[in-house]
Amino acid sequence: MAEKRENIGIVSLPEYTHADPSFVVSGLCELGNSFFNHIGVPHRHDFYTIYWIKKGKLLHTIDAVTHEVKKNTLFFVAPGQVHNLQASEKIEGYMIAFQDAFMCLKDQTQVSGINSGLFFNNQFSSVIPLNDEQEKDIDAIVRLMMKELTMREPEYEMALHGLLRYFLVLASRIKGENVGISPEQHAMHNSSIFLKFKNLIEEKYFELKTVSDYASLLHIKPVLLNEISKQLSGITAGEHIRNRVILEAQRYLYNTDLTAKEIAYKLGFDDPHYFSRFFKKYTSQSPSEFKEASRSVSSQA
């Protein structure tokens, strides 16, 4: 009998470099076992990751959604997202990885549009095929990044910041999204509140479930938090909280063998039956129906 999977592993950046860097650029083959040992195993990163698959083909499952990734394709993984790579043939390419502190994406409203468009979205979709001309541009940036990391000349970290920022802008353009910031997002105070709110959700979604809880921590009224959320994201603060809880439940249902009852307790629900009703209300599926349907799709992929 197969061993019961109860946890989702977390991979840290030093595992790829045997050091403690804030920024890594490497060919996949050069990463060796530190990369290939994680293929086929659902896990999370505690850092931002960009993969560029130059040759080969693989299936990339992220938060229960599976994408076919063909040669010459970029894809993006945010910290905390559960993903699984399955390769049926030899793959070659590059990995760009960096800690949040390297770019401070959570705190810089000027890059929040790029961040949201590539690393965070409701239905993961940042799988970006490149044409020949785009490949040349991306290749030039990656080679400059690798040169800066190798040479480490004065102010090389500043150069890497600029190259990474340009890479994200270029990828956003290729994806076809508008990376400009709307006038509302230039309201620095509201943007700051919203980013703090999103960060608080990541830290406390398993214990805090209401808009009032988060509004209290932010020292504002719940109605104002909802207004800011609607203005900057299109959905209410309550929807953000519910979506995060449901996403984590789906991650555990898809990637572990825990029962719905065990997941309910893991996510801070005192009543497993209430958790099941909550899950079905917002997904139109019971936890067991979601598990069966998602794994059935995975087995056919």
From TrEMBL:
Name assigned to this protein: AraC-like DNA-binding protein
Naturally occurring in which organism (per UniProt): Chitinophaga niastensis
Single GO MF annotation: DNA-binding transcription factor activity
Domain HTH araC/xylS-type: 195-293
UniProt superkingdom: Bacteria
Keywords assigned by UniProt, alphabetized: DNA-binding, Transcription, Transcription regulation
One Pfam family here: AraC_binding
